[in-house]
Each structure stands twice: as C-alpha cells, then as structure tokens.
Amino acid sequence: MITMQKKFGIITIFPDMVKSYLGCSILKRAIEKGIISVEVHNLRDYATDKHKTVDDYPYGGGPGMVMKPEPFYRAVEDLWPARESRRIIMLSPRGRVFSQDVAREIVEDMRVPVFLCGRYEAIDERVRDHLVDDEISIGDYVLTGGELPALVIIDAVSRLIPDVLGDDQSAEDESFSKGLLDYPHFTRPEEFRGMHVPRVLLSGNHEEIRKWRKQQSLKSTLRTRPELLKIYTLSDEEKILIEQIKEEQL
Ligand code: 4FM
To answer: Which domains does the chain have, with CATH numbers?
Structure first.
C-alpha cells in the first residue's frame, strides 16, 4: 500500500517540551509507523558564542529580550539548505489565523514545514524578512512561546494524512471539516443520572439519525457560530431545516 510520508521540522530552545507531546498517543504511533517524522532541533546548538546566547536586549529599549537572528539563519541553512525544499513557518499572533483550510494547504505542500518557535518578547524582524515563508497565528491570545502553536499545527495536519487515524475514524467525516459544528454524541449507558440518550439514536433508522444530526449541527452552528453559515452553501434540505429551527425559536 502506498501512503503519504510527511516530514516536519521544529527549531526551539525547548526540544524536550515538543518531544514529550510527540511521544504520546496517535502522533507517537504515526511516528513509529513511519507515516510522519518530526525533526526537533535545539536552537542553542546554532548559537556562536561560548555561552550559547540566543537572545539580547531590544534596540530602542523596552521590556523583555529579543531573539537574535543569527542562530535561526544558521539552523535553517544547515538543516534545510535548499530553499525550495522547505516552508519556514513562524508562529506568532501577527500571523494569518490557522484553520482547517490552512491545515489542508500544509498537508498538500510538498515542502517540509519547518516551525520556528520564539520565546521571550519577540524574534528579530530580519528573521521574518528573509527567512520566513509563512507566518501563522493559532488565535488571538498571547502564549509564552511558539512550541504549543507548532504542536497544534502538526497535530491538525497529521490527522489529515491517510492512515494516521484508525480505519473507523476518518478526518473527512467530521462536521467541522464540512463547515458546520459537530452534532452531539452519546455512548452507553442509555440512561445516566436521569439523562437519556435521544430516542432517535436508538431507533436504528439511519435516515432519521442522519437528519437529526444535521439538524443538531445546524442548530448549534446557528446559536454559537452564526458567521460560519455565511460561507457555507446550504442544500435544499438544510434550508428547510434552518427555517424549522428559526420557527422553533419564535
Ligand atoms: C511567540 C511568544 C513568539 C514569544 C510567542 C515569541 C502565538 C499565537 C503566540 C507567543 N503563536 N499563535 N497566538 N506566540 O502567542 O501563534 Cl518570540
């Protein structure tokens, strides 16, 4: 069987933080099976002074330290010397916002995604200028570094690769990849602390179940994320279901 083999690279001053997440659960199995591989490199190995300095004071003053450009350039040029072989991704709140579409774009790109993880206050702007191909944010909040965002992206991209998820768990099957929020899920027992599983799910009527799930997805999307419906093309059935939901709310 032919399958995708996706490589990732990470440059960080906390390689153990990244490796510990990759050493668990589904990503661990995917790495063991050779479906994905993640090269984790320590930025300090590319510092040039005897103290392995990777940060310095900001020109112009202000709080915090700035990461020096030289170690990032040296690491990338040593590890992925061919420009066309790599897609250097910087993680920061200044980037374009990550989404399922961006995950699909990265999985389809033949280049190796290499994540530059910053710490401290910022990375020297000259890294962005001539080394970075793509700047991504995982959302409008501020973290202490780029390691968690890099792992978030690797996680979302990896599960799009055929064979990373089990046979029964397809990445395409879920509601969100279709542009709507997921429907409610239930497992045994049928009654828990007086709360019952919706009767339709026990009916064995697959057409009724499909319709109920669609209705639930539309309901929660309309309530919680109405902006998602603006970019979603509704089928005739979905238009009718939406009208029914809106009538219920009157
Ligand atoms: C990034 C801290 C660079 C320090 C960060 C440096 C973030 C986000 C984020 C924190 N990254 N989406 N939100 N990074 O908060 O991507 Cl030098």
So the answer is: 6-158 (3.40.1280.10), 191-249 (1.10.1270.20)
Q: Is the pTM of this model over 0.90?
A: yes
- In this structure, the residues whose C-beta lies within 6 A of any atom of ligand 1 are 67, 91-93, 118-120, 122-123, 137-139, 141-143, 145-146, 149
Contacts with 79 (C-beta within 8 Å, 6 or more apart), sequence order: 9, 11, 39, 41, 114
Atom of ligand 1 nearest to the CA of 118: 17
Structural tokens at position 44: 């300090």
100-159 pLDDT, tens digit each: 999 999 999 999 999 999 999 999 999 999 999 999 999 999 999 999 999 999 999 999
Indicate the SS3 state at residue 94.
strand
Q: Residue 168: pLDDT above 80? A: no
pLDDT at 169 > cutoff 90: no
- Residue 138 CA to ligand 1 center (angstroms) comes to 9
> Best substitution site from 123, 143, 147, 151 to test ligand 1's pocket, by max atoms within 8 Å of Cβ?
143
Contact 242, 222 (CB under 8 A): yes
126-143: buried (b, 16+ CB within 10 Å) or exposed (e) per residue? ebbeebbebbbbbeeeee
- Amino acid at the residue 51: H
Specify the range with the lowest mean pLDDT, choosing from 1-15, 142-156, 160-174, 229-243: 160-174
